[in-house]
Structures are given as structure tokens and as C-alpha cells.
Write a structure and sequence with these properties.
- By secondary structure, the protein is of the alpha+beta class.
- Strand 1, helix 1 and strand 2 form a beta-alpha-beta unit.
- The structure holds flavin-adenine dinucleotide.
Length: 398
């Protein structure tokens, strides 16, 4: 292997959130390494706004995203039919434009380059190009998932410029006082400045299709009710994220997120399972993984085992969130799903922080259930056992 010629030290397949961040920091920490990002789209990071909570990251991890932050707010609010609350906990957003600009000026990148083959030391492009690298990172987004084992968080967001000031000083993380339309539905608002804001219609739904037009119309009528007159739509963001209900939510590879390990290429971001099963947020788990990868030597032999270990740790921590997902999607009627979140937002601030960070304590599990969630005990047990039986069955079949 040592006689082999390598074009690069590291090649990053997919220039999304995870690979762009890691490539940027490898460039900063190890300027002599030759690195390359291959991205099929026109821009790194696509067209996204990524947000996260203060408590999601340690100080060290926070430093890895600090250069990319577009906005910070000191608190946020939530509103449900019978409960609303302000949380005095900072909330941050990163805009993909900023990620694109900063990473592009630092890291050699080939845009509009689709990759068709990824192996531990080789990459093949759509047009037959080949790249050899000492270490390859696969960050191509979600692999194919099993539609029977996931539900969806789908949304359309419009970045708007209003005619008059909107009056918001902090984000509304969930305004679920709207018709639920057979889902857990809420509006999400991020005020960028006094006249500009992102308004998103988000739905936790059994189906993944997004009708952008009807979502857009709903956003406009939400704005009307708020008395916000739209001057211009600046940008549209559409998403449909799988919300895993069971551990084996992927197709192929025996249906496990760990399946990618069999292909021996380190997978980052959502592809490697680095995301919160209930919120769909990947930034915190991804940044945690990046902070650990940066501590080891940037070569395959060191990187691969650490990524595998971290991915397994994240997968292990997610069992409770998948159970919560089953409660949400299978334990109650679709239009009543919001009650679980309404109940959750009556919990202590520390527990809410740990929930978003994906780091609940065992006592938090007990607290959540002793707090009597608005769900029948029988249904809660059905959600728990249904999974166990299926899991046993899948084990027998494997
Ligand atoms: C609209 C939206 C909003 C979100 N908001 C948040 C949020 O606020 N906070 C949060 O933590 N998470 C959020 N998420 C979830 C998650 O963080 C994002 O999906 C995040 O972008 C995942 O990062 P990633 O690097 O794993 O994949 P991506 O960012 O999806 O990057 C994958 C990249 O690989 C490229 N690619 C794919 N296949 C190929 C190929 N064959 N060849 C070359 N390139 C390829 C894609 O074009 C893409 O750029 C959001 C998701 C969506 C869809």
C-alpha cells in the first residue's frame, strides 16, 4: 500500500454540512495536507439554514462552528393551544451561503462533480474520473431508507422581507396553535432583522411528499394572521427528513445504519447516522464527531475506527428517541400529536436542553414517564413491545 500513488491526502465526497466543516478544519489544522471536496451541486451546503441550541455543544465544539454562525438569539419561545413558554437559552443559525463562501476560499473543491463509486482509497466520478486518496470521507447525505420504518419531518421555509417590522426579537421555535392537518404541525420563525425573517411550516407526518405550493400558501396565511405584509420572498427551503421509528430504518446492509461500516469508508453526517432521531438535527452529533476526528492522525487507519466507534455510540443513544417517535406517530391520533410536545415543554429547562442535545439522563426517562404524558399506558407499552417483537423477529430472520 505504501508504494501506491495518492493524488490527495483526504477526499470528501459530498460537500454538505458535515464534510464541508471537517474539510475546513483539517485545512486549518493541517495546512500541508492536500485535500479535495467533490460536490455534485452548484454550491457547498446546498440551500439550508442549520440551527442549534446553546446546550448542544461544548465550548470546544462550539468553536468549530463559530466562524459560520449567521445569527444568535438569547432565547426562543414555543406556543401550544394550552401552554406557551419562553426559554432563556441561546439559539444559533448558520446559513449555507456563509459555509459555501468560507469553505470554498480555503479548500480545493470541484463543484458539479457527481461521484458514482466510493471505496476506502478510490473515488470514481460520473464521467469516469478517478481520484486516489489516503483517506476518503463519505458525506453524501441520507442513504436509501426503508419507508416502513420511518415517518417524516417535512417542511417548507420562506425567507421573507416584510413591508413593516415584524416585531419579533427572538425565534418562535414552535407555534402549534394552528390546524394540525393530520400531523404534528407548527410554524417556525427566525427573525434575521427587523423586517426579514424565515417562516417555516413544519409537519411531523406519516408521508414524505411535500407540496411546496400549498405549504407556501399556508405560510402566507400564517403571516396574514400575524399582520405581516410580505414585500418579497427572498428564498425557499424545502425538506423532508426521515424520522426513524426503529433501529433498522435503512434499506440494504441488513437495514442498519452501521451497514456502511461493511463498506469500510468512513461516513459522516446523516449518512453515518450522526443525527437526532426525533428532531432530525444533525449539526450537534456531526460537530461532536468532527471534534474527535481532529484529534487523531488524518489517515485512514486512525480515522475509520474512530468514526465507527462514534457512530455506534450515537446509534445506541437514539433508542429512546426512536421510542418517542413511535409514541408520536403510532401511540396517538395524528391531530393530537402536538399534546406530547405541549406536555414536554412543561418539563424543567435542563431536561429540555438535554433532549435537544440528545443526551438525556436515565432519570430524565423516568421523569418524562412519571410526568404522565398525554398517552394511554396501554398504547405506550404497545409502542415499546411492538418494537421488541419485531426486533426479535428480525434477529431470527437475519
Ligand atoms: C431544509 C433542511 C433544514 C435543516 N435544518 C436543520 C437544522 O436547523 N439543524 C440541524 O442540525 N439539522 C438540520 N437539518 C438536518 C441536517 O442537519 C441536514 O440535512 C444536513 O445538511 C445534513 O448534513 P450532511 O453533511 O450529512 O448532508 P448534506 O448537507 O445533505 O450534504 C450531502 C451533500 O452530498 C452531495 N452529494 C450527494 N450525492 C452525491 C454524489 N453522488 N456525488 C457528489 N456529491 C453528492 C449533496 O449534493 C449534498 O451537498 C435540516 C435538513 C434540511 C433538509
Amino acid at each position: 500500500m505504501s508504494d501506491r500513488h495518492y493524488d490527495y491526502d483526504c477526499v470528501f465526497v459530498g460537500g454538505g454540512l458535515s464534510n464541508s466543516l471537517l474539510a475546513y478544519w483539517i485545512r486549518q489544522r493541517y495546512p500541508k495536507l492536500k485535500i479535495l471536496i467533490l460536490e455534485q451541486g452548484e454550491k457547498l451546503g446546498g440551500n439550508h439554514t442549520w440551527s442549534f441550541h446553546e446546550g448542544d455543544l461544548t465550548q470546544e465544539e462550539f468553536q468549530l462552528v463559530e466562524p459560520f454562525i449567521s445569527k444568535r438569539w438569547e432565547g426562543y419561545s414555543v406556543a401550544f393551544p394550552k401552554h406557551s413558554r419562553r426559554m432563556d437559552s441561546s439559539y444559533y443559525s448558520i446559513k449555507s451561503e456563509r459555509l459555501h463562501e468560507r469553505v470554498l476560499e480555503q479548500v480545493e473543491t470541484l463543484l458539479e462533480t457527481q461521484v458514482t463509486g466510493v471505496a476506502p482509497f478510490n473515488i470514481t466520478g460520473k464521467n469516469g474520473q478517478q481520484w486516489a486518496a489516503k483517506c476518503v470521507f463519505d458525506g453524501r447525505g441520507f442513504p436509501v431508507f426503508n419507508p416502513e420504518m420511518v415517518a417524516f419531518q417535512k417542511f417548507v421555509g420562506l425567507d421573507l422581507e416584510l413591508i413593516d417590522p415584524h416585531g419579533l426579537t427572538e425565534p418562535i421555535l414552535m407555534d402549534a396553535t394552528c390546524p394540525q392537518l393530520n400531523s404534528f404541525r407548527f410554524f417556525y420563525c427566525l427573525p434575521w432583522d427587523e423586517k426579514r425573517l424565515l417562516v417555516e411550516d413544519t409537519r411531523y407526518s406519516d408521508t414524505g411528499e411535500v407540496d411546496s405550493e400549498s405549504f407556501g400558501a399556508e405560510i402566507k396565511s400564517f403571516c396574514e394572521k400575524k399582520g405581516w405584509k410580505i414585500a418579497r420572498i427572498l428564498r425557499e427551503e424545502v425538506g423532508s427528513l426521515p424520522i426513524p421509528l426503529r433501529a433498522k430504518y435503512l434499506l440494504g446492509d441488513k437495514g442498519q445504519p452501521e451497514g456502511w461500516m461493511a463498506r469500510l469508508v468512513p461516513c459522516l453526517g446523516v449518512r453515518g447516522g450522526f443525527f437526532h432521531s426525533t428532531t432530525g438535527y444533525s449539526l450537534p452529533d456531526t460537530v461532536r464527531a468532527i471534534s474527535r476526528i481532529l484529534l487523531v492522525k488524518t489517515e485512514y487507519q486512525s480515522v475509520y475506527p474512530i468514526v465507527v466507534t462514534l457512530s455506534k455510540q450515537v446509534a445506541k443513544r437514539q433508542w429512546f428517541f426512536r421510542f418517542l417517535n413511535r409514541l408520536l406517530f403510532q401511540g396517538c391520533e395524528a391531530n393530537c400529536r402536538y399534546r406530547i410536545l405541549e406536555f414536554f415543554y412543561r418539563m424543567p429547562k435542563g431536561l429540555i436542553r438535554r433532549f435537544y442535545a440528545g443526551k438525556l439522563w436515565p432519570t430524565d426517562y423516568i421523569r418524562i414517564f412519571l410526568g404522565a404524558p398525554p398517552i394511554k399506558i396501554r398504547d405506550a407499552f404497545r409502542c415499546l413491545f411492538h418494537n421488541r417483537q419485531r426486533f426479535q423477529q428480525e434477529k431470527v430472520n437475519a
